[in-house]
Amino acid sequence: MNKESIMKKLMFLGTVLAATFASVSATFATPSLPNLSAPHIDATGAIPNNKSASAPIYFFQVHIQGHTLSSVTIDLPEGVKVGGTINVVDQLNRSIEATVTPQGNKAVVSFAQPIATGTTLNFYMREMSIDGNKKSLIYLIPVSAKFANLNADIPLGLVRIQTYGK
Known about the structure:
By secondary structure, this protein is α+β, with helices and mostly antiparallel strands. It has two domains: 32 residues; 123 residues, Agglutinin-like protein, N-terminal domain, N2 subdomain (Immunoglobulin-like, Sandwich). The protein contains one helix and eleven strands. About 5% of the residues have low confidence.
C-alpha cells in the first residue's frame, strides 16, 4: 500500500466518524420533554423584570392536563403577601372569573367554572407586599391545585420571584 491509498482511507474513516459523532451529539443535545400529561407550571417571571421597577407584576403560567381544574393555591413565604389582586387569563387572553381567598400565608384562587384540560392559564399577581428586611431575595413559591374528582392539593411546581431592595 502506498501513502496516497492510506491517506484516502484515513480521510474516509475520519469523514464517517465525524458524521456519526455529529448525528449522535445532535440527538443528545436536542431537549426531549417527557409526555407531560400532568398539569404543570410552564413559565414564571415579572413585568418589567428589572430592579428599577417600583411595582412589578409577577406572573406564572399553568398548563392544565389530565383533569379539569377547580382551584389553585399559592403558598406565600412569611413576609410576602399579595396586596392587590390576582388576575387570571387564558391562552387567548380572555379573563377567567375567579375568587381570591387569603388563608393565612396562602392565597387560594377558586374558579367559578371548572377549567377544561388543554387550557393554559396565566396568573398575574399585582402589588406584592414584601417586608422591608425580606427584599433583595429570590423566592421559590410552591403552587398546588385542586382538580375535579380529586380531593387533594396536587403540587404543580415552584414559581420563582426575585425582589429588589429599595
